[in-house]
Specification:
With about 150 residues, the protein is mainly α. The protein is built from six helices and three strands; from the N terminus they run E-H-H-E-E-H-H-H-H.
C-alpha cells in the first residue's frame, strides 16, 4: 500500500515557488492547475508536483508563450503525452515574431538616426515646436500619400 501523498496549503506552495497566492488562484481558475481539495478552513491544498507545473508555466511565459498556449501544452501532458512537437511549432512561431519585431526596431532606429544627422532646422513659425520632429511627420505623410515633394501645410 502506498503512503498518501503529502498535500501542501496554497501558502506553502506560494512560498516554495515564489509565485504569489493570487497568481496561483488565477492559474487554477484558468485550468492550468488543479487543487487536490481544501482544508477544513477552506485553504486550497496542492500535491507536490504543482511546483514543477508552476515552474513550467513561468519558464514558458518567460519565452513569450501565452497562458492559452501553455494550457494547451499542459492539457496534452495531462493526457499522458509529451507536448514537445506542439511546443516546437509555437517556439518557431515566436522566433518569426521576434524577427519581425527586430526588423521593425531596426527600421525605427534608422529613422531616428536619419533625423539626428540632418542639419539643425530653425523655424520662425511660432507654432512650430520642434522642426526635426515636425519635418519627419511631413516626410512620413508625403511618403504615405505618394507625394513626390514635401509640402508644409
Amino acid at each position: 500500500m502506498q503512503a498518501q501523498e503529502e498535500l501542501k496549503q496554497i501558502g506553502a506552495i506560494a512560498k516554495e515557488s515564489g509565485i504569489p497566492i493570487k497568481t496561483i488562484r488565477y492559474y487554477e481558475e484558468l485550468g492550468l492547475l488543479e487543487s487536490s481539495g481544501r482544508t477544513e478552513g477552506g485553504f486550497r491544498l496542492f500535491a507536490n508536483n504543482v511546483i514543477n507545473r508552476l515552474s513550467f508555466i513561468k519558464r514558458s511565459q518567460s519565452l513569450g508563450l501565452s497562458l492559452s498556449e501553455i494550457k494547451e501544452f499542459l492539457s496534452i501532458h495531462d493526457q499522458g503525452e509529451l507536448p514537445c512537437v506542439h511546443v516546437k511549432v509555437k517556439l518557431q512561431d515566436k522566433i518569426a515574431e521576434v524577427d519581425r519585431q527586430i526588423q521593425q526596431l531596426l527600421t525605427l532606429r534608422s529613422d531616428l538616426e536619419a533625423l539626428l544627422v540632418g542639419e539643425p532646422l530653425v523655424s520662425e513659425n511660432a507654432e512650430t515646436i520642434c522642426p526635426i520632429i515636425e519635418l519627419a511627420e511631413v516626410k512620413e505623410l508625403a511618403g504615405h500619400n505618394g507625394m513626390g515633394s514635401l509640402k508644409k501645410y
